[in-house]
Amino acid sequence: MPHKILKSAHYIELGSYQYWPVLVPRGIRLYTYEQIPLFLRENPYITDGYRAYLPSRLCIKSLFILSNETVNIWSHLLGFFLFFSLGLYDMTTVLPASGASREDYVIYSIGLFCFQVCMLCSVGYHLFSCHRSEKTSRRWVALDYTGISIGILGCYVPGVFYAFYCNNYWRQVYLITVLAMILAVFFAQIHPNYLTKQWRRLRSAIFCSVAAYGVIPTIHWVWLSGGFGAELIQAFIPRVLMVYLIAAAAFVFYISKVPERYFPGQLNYLGSSHQLWHVLVVLVFYCWHQSIVPAQTTCSSSKDCRASPLWDLRL
Ligand SMILES: [Zn+2]
């Protein structure tokens, strides 16, 4: 068990040759990759700046020190405040101005609530993964994965709701399939092997499939709305593609561990792949939300669905 050290200046490497002194509170010290317990060893290219062996109280206190998790924690803590503020703004300004129905309020709340839960689960994981108990640390890993599923659900619910606004049958089909898929992922997490390193590829494949499934309702929506030439599709498809592109980039950073793979030890505190993944996840949710706002306005302003190209095609 490592000994506690008094408040002292600890020199960290930030960039290639610069060493910055940081104040480390009593009881917290930073470790190298070789010094941390096995269950924390995920990324050998992040060589230093690890917190470890901490009780809950010091995990929380470590929110205010510079470690290799600081950017991960704060990026999603700020993300949480962003979606919380967006929620308040939507409920008090955007929705009343667009003559939104009660359903719109519910759908907006579900979407933004899911994003906030996703952000908080991630903050919790990055804050408490360094807990001295492996069991506690693993519980937070599981919660982080659950948060990602909930975040994906937060994209699907408003997306499907407004894409199939005038087609109740397909709206229900896609919402039920998505819910079933997310529930299946939750149950898969109960499997004792789910969080092991051996199942890492399988975990990634599951999340990719859940996100990629969205291509099916998207193509269906394009087809039902009159193809790529239709005005509605031309207005919204670039937004959908952009969100998918950012999500794909985020995932590539996440699994490839680029750029720190090429600069081992130099991106311990700033610029690592997981930090890029975090920022891009916030961007995906934000862009998606910004696409839902005009979709809801369009749907609310043309309340009569008989004018919609989707009306004739409904089952
Ligand atoms: Zn993370």
TrEMBL record:
Pfam families given in the database record: HlyIII
TM stretches of this protein: 71-89, 105-128, 140-165, 171-190, 202-224, 236-255
Binding site for Zn(2+): 126, 274, 278
Subcellular location as annotated: Membrane
Top-level taxon in the UniProt lineage: Eukaryota
Record has Hydrolase as a keyword: no
Keyword RNA-binding: no
GO CC field: membrane
Bilayer topology annotation: Multi-pass membrane protein
A GO term for molecular function: signaling receptor activity
Coiled-coil features, chain-numbered ranges: none
InterPro entries: AdipoR/HlyIII-related
Keywords per UniProt: Membrane, Metal-binding, Transmembrane, Transmembrane helix, Zinc
PANTHER family per UniProt: ADIPOR/PROGESTIN RECEPTOR-RELATED, PROGESTIN AND ADIPOQ RECEPTOR FAMILY MEMBER 3
Similarity comment: family membership: Belongs to the ADIPOR family.
Name used for this protein in its record: Progestin and adipoQ receptor family member 3
